[in-house]
Each structure stands twice: as structure tokens, then as C-alpha cells.
Amino acid sequence: MRPEPSTLAGPAAPALREPGAILLISCYELGRQPLGVAVAGAFLRRAGFAPAALDLSVEPFDAARVARAGLVVISVPMHTALRLGLRAAAQVRAVNPGTHVCFHGLYAGLNAAWLMEHGADSAIGGESEGPLVALAEALTAGRPAAVAGASVPGRVAPPHLARLDFPAPARELLPPLARYARIERDGRFDLAGSVEASRGCRHRCLHCPIPPAYDGRFFVVPAEVVLADVRHQVAMGATHITFADPDFLNAPTHALRIVRALHAEFPVLSFDLTTKIEHVLEHRALMPELAACGALFVVSAVESLSDTVLAHLEKGHTRADVFAALGILRQAGIALRPSLVSFTP
């Protein structure tokens, strides 16, 4: 049961600009250092806050950090993170019943009403960092949490879809890269990082959670911000970078600008990317250059080799297209790593 939401006003209320008064929690982000925390932390820092972070995928639950927080922000970029985040919220409530619990990220917006029923004070979807800063400022001033873009009990807000002014992610808030997934090659397990060059997606595949939030829109992260983030991770020891965009080739000119700059600055740095089969076909001429710049593999949501299933999912490709894309990538020296819809014959 959720306690009465607090505006954090009054002399006994925690000052959210004090170090650790905002706690950013990640539970799961595919084994990577969580961008959901690093980016949100950078936005909050720029606004004058001093958040702490806790990544429950690699760190134990820290009751002391939770007890200090007047605002706890749980990142839920995917379904597994949502389920684990709800469990984390219950732990937070047990330690600090009066703190404001906010869920942010893709699955926060899609499940806002359900989260309110299960104890959340607010939920922010879409390009969530702007409303998150507004929420922290409102709570600091003792105002209600119903800021634009934030769902609160009794009011579900649509996903916030506005272009943001991105700072470089605050990686220093998080455990070192050595605590996260690595890339295996030549018998070694090398440190790997991840960045986003864009967010959202211009496609509307029916199996995907992104279209209900972004409705065919996507936003590029400025190249200089992406490059600064890569430099930071290379300085931490990364020899490989995952482009964690929903589809790296939604903006191929932007993507090429970034990989060319990376290769010029870090010639031995490798990378992987996610893109649709139809983009591999459409941009087949780019594949040899991507390989020359360090692309090792492409993740693609193949989902099925049944044309019937693909048509129902409105994937935009056919069984034949999958094999054509496989040939294009193999010729360029890039491996294809497909994802498949579970539980279909």
C-alpha cells in the first residue's frame, strides 16, 4: 500500500540537492552499465542535484543509501527491469516509507497506471529525463509532483516526446566496467561499453514496445555527446562498444559520422549495432565501410522465418530477405545475430 504522497515540504523534509538525497536505481540493462542511470544522473547533476546510484544487477541492496533518499528513481527500460524494479520498490518502501518513488524509462510510461496501483508515486516515459528534472525541482520546492510528462495517481500522462539537450552520461556514478558483460574474442574476455546514438524508432513493428511510446518518432543524440561518452569508456578500459539504439541505421548519415570519427580516433576499437533486416538491404553499400570501421556483428530482430508470422508482426521483411541480409553481412565480414519471437512453431 502506498503512503500518502509527500511534497517533501517542511523543515524536516530532506533537501534533494544534498549528496545522495536522490537515488537512481537500475535492476537490469542486459548486463551493461546502465544508461538509464548514467543519463538521468547527468541531467540531474547539470540541474544542481547530486544523485547517488545503485545498480542491483551487480551490487547488493544498500539500505543506508535508500534511507538517505527523499526521491528514489527506478529505471525500467525493459520488461525484466520492470518486474525487478517493482520488487526493488517494495524493498525501498520497507526501509524508507516516506520517500517519493518514481519509475522512469520506456516501460514506466507503458505501465504507468499499473505502477500507481502497485505503489509508485510517479512514472515517466518517453524522453524522460526532462520531466524527471522538473519532478525533482517541484519536490524540492514543495510543489505537487504532477509536472508535465509525469504520471501520478489519478492522472496518466502520455510519453514525453520532446527533443532534449543531452549532457554526456555520468558514468562515474556506476561500478566500473569490469563488473559488467564483456566481449569474448580470441580466448579473451575484454571490457565492453555501450552508448546510444539515437532513441525511439521510426518503425511500428507490432511486437515491439517502442511504437506505443514513440509512435514512429526517434531522436538523435548529438555526435559530440556520443563521442565523449565513448572516450570516457575507452579511458575505463573498453575495447568494444555496443550501440544500444533500437535501430542504429534509422539515421544512417548520423551513424556513419559517428563510426568514422570513432575509427579515426580509436582504430582498434570494435563495435556492434542493432538494425532491421530491411535496413541491411537498403544500406547494403554501407556494410563494407562499417566492417572496416570495426563492426563485428549486427543484432537484428528477425523474429521468425515464417512469412505468415512476419506479415502479422508487420516486420517489413520476408524469409527471403533474411537470407539476403545474411549474405550481405557475411560478404562484408560482419556476423548476424538474430533475435527470434519465442513460442512460435
UniProtKB/TrEMBL annotation:
<protein>
    <submittedName>
        <fullName>Radical SAM protein</fullName>
    </submittedName>
</protein>
<dbReference type="InterPro" id="IPR023404">
    <property type="entry name" value="rSAM_horseshoe"/>
</dbReference>
<keyword id="KW-0949">S-adenosyl-L-methionine</keyword>
<dbReference type="GO" id="GO:0046872">
    <property type="term" value="F:metal ion binding"/>
</dbReference>
<feature type="domain" description="Radical SAM core">
    <location>
        <begin position="196"/>
        <end position="334"/>
    </location>
</feature>
<dbReference type="GO" id="GO:0051536">
    <property type="term" value="F:iron-sulfur cluster binding"/>
</dbReference>
<dbReference type="Pfam" id="PF04055">
    <property type="entry name" value="Radical_SAM"/>
</dbReference>
<keyword id="KW-0411">Iron-sulfur</keyword>
<dbReference type="InterPro" id="IPR007197">
    <property type="entry name" value="rSAM"/>
</dbReference>
<keyword id="KW-0479">Metal-binding</keyword>
<dbReference type="GO" id="GO:0003824">
    <property type="term" value="F:catalytic activity"/>
</dbReference>
<dbReference type="InterPro" id="IPR058240">
    <property type="entry name" value="rSAM_sf"/>
</dbReference>
<keyword id="KW-0408">Iron</keyword>
<dbReference type="GO" id="GO:0005829">
    <property type="term" value="C:cytosol"/>
</dbReference>
<dbReference type="InterPro" id="IPR051198">
    <property type="entry name" value="BchE-like"/>
</dbReference>
